[in-house]
Amino acid sequence: MVLVTILALPLLGGTAIAVGRGRRASAWVAVATNGATLVLGILTAVRVVKDGPISGAWGVLRADALSVFMVIVIGAISLLASWLGIRTMAREQELENGSSVRSSHYGMLVQAFVGFMLLAVLAANVGVLWVAVEATTIVTAFLVGYRRTRGSLEASWKYIVICSVGIALAFLGTVFVYLAALHAGGHSAQALDWTSLMAHAHRFNPSLMRFAFALIVLGYGTKVGLAPMHSWLPDAHSQAPAPVSALMSGVLLTVAFYAILRFKAVTDVALGPGFARTLLVVVALLSLALAASLLITQRDYKRMLAYHSIEHMGLIALGAAAGIRLAIAAVLLHILGHGLAKSVLFLTSGEIMAAEGTSQIDGVRTLLARRPALGGVFGVGLVALLGLPPFSLFTSELVMVRAEFEVGLGWAAVLAMVAMVVIFIAVVGHARHMLLGPPTSSHLPAPPPRWVATPLIGGLAVCGFIGVFAWPLSGLLEAAARVVAS
Amino acid sequence: MNGSSYSSALTLAAGAVLVCAVAILWLASIRSVIRMVAAQGMALGLVAVVLGVHLHDAGLLAAAAVVIAMKGVVIPVLLGRASGGNSGSRESRPLVNVPASLVASAALIVLAFVTGRSVARFVGTTAGALVPIGIATLLIGFFVLVARRRPTFQIVGLLMVDNGIALTAFLCTAGFPFLIELGVSFDVLLGVVVLMVLSQRLRIEFGDVDLDELQELHD
């Protein structure tokens, strides 16, 4: 019942926007429903950690600790994104001479997007998971192309073509897993259920599973933005409206990674941990190298954030490759920390772009002096994202490295750290250009209204809080890691 | 159906899917390509019908009906309407010309039979032996995506990739549970609709465009 409610909440928000025709009050209803998703996610997490997994809707939905953790991440980021989305919708109405048709479409699509992500993590069946992830591609294609400029149309075309091909390969992988499950004695209707997969995985045909998992990594990896399947990501993230970029980078990538984590657990049972580990280490190091080399010469700050996402997805993949419980707990903490910091940064970059009128790094100067609130949030967000204390990304990166050394992946961790140092230097250089310097005029523009600044600062504060005090999350992280750790 | 007529019906239907794929490489006019991808959808549905009759599986027959309706009728009609304004238009300058494309498709088919053999042996049924045909269709779909530059051709390429995977799924496992099958078909339909809307917007914004002329975004 509670799971159905969680899925119904974004629908409710979307309906409110449809009925309210995109008026400001209806958008606030959507913010409230996304907040309710977060609260309900936390309450369910408490219950699941105590009593074990729950299922609902005649077994279609199932929530274990890993699923509810992802629900919390989705709830938190969608709360932030829909809050700042009110600004986006208001600007859109100005552009359309007060007509709210397009802004209400925007609001409804965002709610649908959130709903499909929730379905993906709550699905009991990996087939349903696939359907939900593919649906997010379709919904977001419109959102990426929302501005209908040449750039955004090109980005959304690339996005949907590349991701559809990727996700099609993931489907082929799922077909082969299904084939393996049927041959291992699974009953056709339930064979793709997570519990049934894990129960029978030790009898799956190994060569078929190798083939299947490679396709899954290639397929869902496209959606995660792992190199070499990343080419859609910088375009889509830089062209989409800021709240959509925040949702895509903050959670959509990691929802796709959640799918890889699930299949990795099945593969580990069938084949032992070696195969999945090798594959993930390769894509992780490729992603890190690519992000490092392209961040150095980046001229656009939204694209800079996008390549930074590729870096973090690489780190997450490397952590998952280690695969032990400690590593998975750190991966999950990293998913949350990266989601919070990255979505705050994308949302702030949207405000900066609206205020400064450009997304070029060269076009923005002395931001800290002229716009202390926006510049400050942007700077602190970058500090969080670069993995400096006290933010949670510091903790999770440290623990991941430790776990990697523990399983003999120390060499990969060292390579990753080299890439991180390069990225650190590159990003600090870009940020220095944007943020520091004396103001050019004594006239200070008006700061953003308090209701805009609140969620941005709040998001970073939470990211810092869980970096210092991990205890509210430790039980959940522990339980969630146990679900898929090898 | 007795054994041998089942096996020849199945081979014929699956073979038709592949023949359509190769034919698409050969054709240049958008209208005839859309007709050919409709025929491919029908052939795919036929595979499911033959399997469903053979296995006495009502779910499979229902899935076949969905496939024929969606991929054989609805999507091609929508696609034809979307490119209606310039339905006579052709792929005038493909990145790879027709003879070279056909040679490439032959190579891809060989590749599919080499890689698909182990899966075929694992499945071990009459249907399973045809799995390489599904993989070949998938690979030719990829080729169309890479080698053709008109937006409609890319949509057709995606549909071919999808048909190849669906064929593989039918042959390997006699289809997915019906509910998932339905969800998958629905996703494909929506995906195509989104792509068509986008291609119309592209045409409004850029004029009649080849996709490699889109170069607003780069590093």
Alpha carbon gyration radius of chain B: 18 Å
Query: Approximately how much helix is present in the residues of chain B?
Result: over 70%
Instruction: Please give the radius of gyration of chain A in angstroms.
Output: 21 Å
Termini Cα gap of chain A:
31 Å
> Quick check: average pLDDT of chain B?
85
Average pLDDT of chain A works out at: 91
Q: How large a portion of the residues of chain B is in β-strands, by DSSP E? A: under 5%
Uncertain segments of chain B: none
Strand content of chain A: under 5%
Largest sheet composition of chain B: none
What would you call the structural class of chain A? mainly alpha
CA-CA gap between termini of chain B: 60 Å
Can you tell me the residue ranges of chain A where pLDDT is under 50 for at least 5 consecutive residues? none
Number of strands of chain A: 2
Shape call of chain A = globular
Q: Would you summarize the structure shown here?
A:
The complex is a heterodimer of chains A (486) and B (219). Chain A has 486 residues and is mainly α.
Fold and architecture overview:
The complex is a heterodimer of chains A (486) and B (219). With 486 residues, chain A is mainly alpha-helical. Helices cover 79% and strands 1% of the residues of chain A. Chain A has a two-stranded antiparallel sheet with strand order 1-2. Chain A is globular. The two termini of chain A are 31 Å apart. The mean pLDDT of chain A is 91. Chain B is mostly helical and 219 residues long. In chain B, 78% of the residues lie in helices and 0% in strands. Chain B contains seven helices and no strands. Chain B has helices at 3-26, 30-55, 58-82, 98-123, 131-147, 151-173, 178-206. The termini of chain B are far apart. In chain B, 47% of the residues are buried. The mean pLDDT of chain B is 85. Chain A binds chain B through residues 125, 127-128, 130-131, 134-135, 137-138, 141-142, 145, 148, 150-151, 153-157, 160-161, 164-165, 168, 171-172, 175-176, 178-179, 182-183, 188-189, 192, 205, 207-208, 211, 234-235, 238-239, 294, 297-298, 303, and chain B through 118-119, 122-123, 138, 142, 145, 151, 154, 158, 161-162, 165, 168-169, 172-173, 176-177, 180, 183-184, 186-187, 190-191, 194-195, 197-199, 201-202, 205-206, 211, 214, 216-217, 219.
